[in-house]
Amino acid sequence: MVALTKGSFTVPLVVAGGFCLLGAFSYLVIVGRIEPLPVERGRDRARDGAARAA
Predict the structure, then answer these.
(1) What is the DSSP letter of 9?
(2) Which residues does 1 contact at the CB level (< 8 Å), separation at least 6?
(3) Which in 6, 7, 17, 35 has the greatest CB count within 10 A?
């Protein structure tokens, strides 16, 4: 793309920035809200017991 613009980096940088913004926007829309997973107490106790036995 730099060759097409005769050595100017302006157009390629604007295009790259546009793709960055598009990617950030689509990430926010597709992924949505990020929340921690709930902890199951039974698994924690089993894991602690196995760690103590080792």
Answers:
(1) -
(2) 11, 12, 15
(3) 17
In a domain, 14, yes or no: yes
Question: What is the value of pTM for the model shown?
Answer: 0.51
DSSP category for residue 6: T
Note whether 2 and 16 are within 8 A (CB). Answer: no
> For residues 42 and 49, what is the distance between their CA atoms, to the nearest angstrom?
11
Residue bearing tokens 């597709």: 30
* Number of neighbouring beta carbons within 10 Å of residue 12: 13
Q: Is 44 in a helix, a strand, or coil?
A: helix
Q: The domain containing residue 11 runs over which residues? A: 1-30
- 9 in any annotated domain: yes
